[in-house]
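Researcher: Go.
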Amino acid sequence: MSDTAARIPEDLKTAMKAKDTVALNALRALKTALTNAAIEKGGLGTQLDEPEVLAVIRKQLKQRQDSIAQFEQHGRPELAEIEKAEIAVLSKYLPAALTEEQILEIVEQAVAHTGATGKADMGKVMKRAQELADGRADGKVLSGAVMKRLS
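Model: Structure:
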């Protein structure tokens, strides 16, 4: 079992004892998503490795970001605030984000590795850059850096 996956049940117990409803809801949803991912992978009881766990966490964060946009668009700021609080809880499980300099360095490495010369090679460069970033950079930020470098 990955370190992150092992931490979640312990944090869930802590949130229950502290009666922290926001953390409790976020962690319960995450635990359910992890269980569903394990079932999809190979059945109930299958262990997810660390990259798979982080991918599920990122998916949960993305869902909450989408919800925030919807809630704000429809005039429900109180629900958007709850989603933001859950994002703060879930973000603790992700590795530290890359700095702008590190992202630019990764983009340069990806361009050098793929031999890209223009925007037509964007897909190849993005694939390699995402591998190098290992989930520590937002896809939009990475895409922007690649686009800027290839233009």
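Model: Helices lie at 3-18, 21-42, 50-73, 77-91, 100-114, 122-133, 139-150.
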